[in-house]
Write a structure and sequence with these properties.
Layout lengths: L1 H22 L8 H30 L5 H25 L13
């Protein structure tokens, strides 16, 4: 009887330990290096998008692109920037006004 209880206990412990591998679920990005790396990447993407919008504004005012192209590209990049900022906010709730992960 004690042997059966021991076997059941070992099987239960093994099932508990191996269940994340069997289910194939990923760990949530709640903290640690994965979350920080994702935030750094999103901040870099945001900075690139903002720079692109500044360049687009400059090109429009210098006459390099037409008004129609300016509107189309501006709308596209503004929507992209909003999406990136929303993703940053989703990963870092309550981080508004705090320093970014890269220290800025």
């Amino acid at each position: 009887m004690a042997t059966l209880a021991g076997i059941l206990l070992v099987l239960a412990a093994a099932a508990l330990v191996l269940s994340p591998l069997v289910r194939g679920r990923e760990a949530p990005l709640t903290d640690g290096p994965d979350r920080l790396a994702a935030l750094r990447e999103l901040h870099a993407l945001r900075d690139v998008t903002y720079e692109t919008l500044r360049d687009l504004e400059f090109d429009y005012h210098s006459g390099k692109i037409s008004a129609a192209d300016y509107k189309e590209l501006g709308d596209r990049y503004r929507a992209e920037a909003v999406g990136i900022v929303r993703r940053i906010d989703a990963l870092a709730p309550g981080a508004r006004g705090q320093a970014t992960p890269d220290g800025r």
